[in-house]
Amino acid sequence: MNKKALIITGRIACLLSQKKILMDLFQNHDVYVITSNEYKDIDLSFFHLKSILYIEESTDFKQEQEFLLSLNEGSKLLQWQKLHLAILKIRDIELSEGFEYESITKVRTDIIFDAKDSNFFPISPCENTFYMNSDFCFSANRKVFMLLSDFYYKCLTFYYGRELPLCVIDKDQKVDLKAGRFNWIRLANNNPNGSSGIEQSINKLKFSSEAVFLTEILNNDLSIKRLIDRDLKLFSHRYMSVEIEKLYDGAKKSLQENKLDKLFNIISLELPNEFADIFRDAYFKTTDLEYKQAFIKKAHSIRPAGPGIAKEYQLSYLMLNKKVIDEHLIFIDKVADNLPWLIIFSPMDKFLVKGHEFVQDPWGVELVKKIDVEVNCIYISAIGKNTWYRSKLLAEYLSEIGKQLKGCNVVGYGFSMGAFGVSSFGEVLNIKEVLLVSPVSTLNKEAAYFDNSPKYLAYRKLDWDGDFSDGVRNIKSGYCLFDGLSVVDKGHADRFIINKISFVGMGHNITRAINSGLVYYILVCLLKQKDIKYSTIAKFLRYKRTLPEYYRKMSERNFSSPKRLKILTKFKRKHQV
User: Fold this and answer.
1) C-alpha angle with apex 415: 384 to 318, nearest 5 degrees?
2) Domain at 133, CATH number
3) Which pLDDT tens digit goes with each residue over 486-541?
4) Of 5, 75, 215, 431, which has fewest CB within 10 angstroms of its CB?
């Protein structure tokens, strides 16, 4: 049975305008659609529709999508989530009806197709070839296509947030770089052996969809060819309503004519992605401080952390909103009254300034950009030494801040010394929920009798008996992430009566090993007051199995029972570490 499957995901508003061409191109395909409720009114009966899923009708899928959108560059993961759901549905249909598709094709519906494109869709793709035109459309036989069935989870738990060495393209592999947006991944010079390869690291990106996809394809020993042999074009402003498109054209005209007051008047509106560049350009044009701050905030709320802007904005804005209290800098970034608050205390040695000069952004600024949740923030950092936040003046100032936060949704986050700060001032700051990573609960010798860490020796001379000297007393709800095999870390964690998540094997500084998605996931759920699922947490915790350091440390510490040793050996071989 030579049956073929077509997967359509995401926005499908452009389908009807190409109805006849699409019917001709895919008349012999079973069609699987994964989309949003907003397209429920679109009639797809002209397709041989096998299955349609609206994301919002599943609570789990909807929450997963919201989580992805909360990540910096998380929108790049959406297509892989939807592709994964479609593949699962195809497998269910195949199993229930007792057949397998010959080939599977996935297309975006905002492509402007041509009737001639039918000549380029291969009837029987080569056994080990993946045909594609970037993420616009791709096709392969079933065996090859199904290799991508777990790619979404690999993106989420392994690729996202990591600087990865990319696959080397050797001379025997056939890769048509025009098949995807691969040209920006610069080819390395020929090495002495005469083979060519991709440059070994792509910096400054949380998730490079093209580079990661190319890596995955080549890791599976596949070739890549162009599916449609022409440059594809998309519908212009394909997702804007007529009203928003008029507003967009007016905004561009206002920018060109330097009528920035008109741009200022539309800041309160909910605007699509295309408006971000307009507001960033306006930020550079104006000298008015109120306009400058309003424009850059709006640009970041539409599309956070744009190129070349974020650093300049952060430092200038920080200078305007800083408060220095007894060798601590408190930076309050209030966006709006109705938003939740995230309070972040810096860990040891993360000094914000030295001698009145900035040496780095407050610890946590980058994290807030990455979780991409609109939130009010308070960053608290030591200026030039590890104070452990043992300051009466700081306590008094934070108490005043806490009075203004009464009744708000306030979340605290910190690592090590920062976790101590969050927990010790949790009550006065009206913090409702916390995420503590490898927390130090106190340096009081009696309470923390298990902790004789040499690095804390100098700080034990501080007052550890007075107010705010023990974090355990001041928080009631939240999550604690720690290494359960570390006697010291487990001792501190056990003193807190909150939810515990043990990340075994990495020691105190587990921030180097935690997949960043886990921290983002927990913080997003706490800020949005959503339930945290341990099944989702478990997916992130599996990330450690990909780290050579994990196996090394577990071997050194000799904590492996025969059962655990068997599991470690299995996954060490699987991940080739």
Assistant:
1) 50
2) 3.90.550
3) 889 999 999 999 999 887 766 666 765 555 677 888 888 999 888 888 888 777 77
4) 75
